[in-house]
Amino acid sequence: MKGKILIISILGFLLFFSACNSDFDVNDKWSDSPVVFCVLDKSQNMQYVKVNKSFLGKLPASEMASVSDSLFYNCDVQVKLNRKQGNSILKSWNFRAVDSIPKEPGYFASDRNTIWVGTPDISTDYMYELEVNIDNGRIIAKGETNIVEGVKIKTPDERAPKIELAKYSNDFSVVYTLGKNSNLVQTCVYFHYLEVLNTGDTVPKTIEVYNNTEYKVNVSPYTNVEQAFSVASFYSSIAAQINANDETVVKRLVRMNPDHNNKNQSITFAVTSSDENMYTYMQVTKPSGGIAQERPMFTNIYIDKDSKLNSGTAYGLIASRYTEVLVKAVGSETLDSLARGIHTKNLKFQPWTDNYYITHKPYN
């Protein structure tokens, strides 16, 4: 590697939205630039903030990123969230630093994974300001966001005891309504099943069978939005992700037993909506379709004028989202299609007459 490369460490960034890799043209003299990420989620009680620092060196980036001291500040870092109305701060919540949340191995150091957590009361009626104070005011990084009100899944009907995805020629629709401040929506569908092994063990499995993101959904709040996927694609996705030649598997069963919320988990529908900040971030950082691969950097985190540091730049994102989850059991027609259908008949799924389904039948 020639010269000195400033590496912006963007770690473990969320959530239920797909992250995209971006190359940044950051050849420059080193400056102390904080990297802050926070996605407020009104559907969750706990909120999280990630604070890292930029680092500089002559070694390969993968080697430097494996050292925790390259990623985290070794000075006092205070994180708080302010509820604002206009320029007035109405209430503030202090976040605490924890190192108990594990991170998967990779290029970035996993021996230390400091995340700031808090339980603020967030509402769509106010603007929220994230404030990160580093080294007793030497650097103060801030950013603001509105709060996404929420999303409500209308179809499938939560009151229906089961759903059927049996006819290949049909489409299956997911219908939902969006609340205020929603500009980006991702719909995911997950399929849950069990593998009975020749050792006698039963292993729960989950695969994603549908994932669609709609950018800039221009609809008025509380109106219905529909997304549909073909039933045939549901089965072909299952077939593509399950190894039909795994000789350790005696049989497979669609999961019917209740989860910890006493809901029968065969299919999970998850609809996540997010705000304008997330929409812009996703648009800017998605892969380029052209020959030129350079992408601009988006950040809505800035260095506050009250910082003791006279100059500098902050990077990162503060945004908001909301996730609605609906879990449903499937009916006997779907079980039969999995056991005998052209796409999945070789995957050892059992017909609806299997004793497991008779015992765990979640509907009359």
Give the oligomer, counting copies of the same chain as homo and different chains as hetero. Answer: single chain
Low-confidence stretches: 1-26
What average pLDDT do the residues reach?
86
Instruction: Report strand %.
Output: 35-45%
* Tally of individual domains: 2
CA radius of gyration? 24 Å
| Secondary-structure element string | EEEEHHEEEEEEEEEEHEEHEEHH
Describe this structure as you would to a colleague.
This protein is mainly beta. The protein has 2 domains: 190 residues, no CATH class; 152 residues. The strands form 3 sheets. Strands 2, 3, 5, 6, 7, 8, 9, 12, 13, 15, 16, 17 and 18 form a 13-stranded mixed beta sheet that branches. A hairpin with a 4-residue loop joins strand 12 and strand 13. The longest helix has 11 residues. The chain is globular. The N terminus is likely disordered.
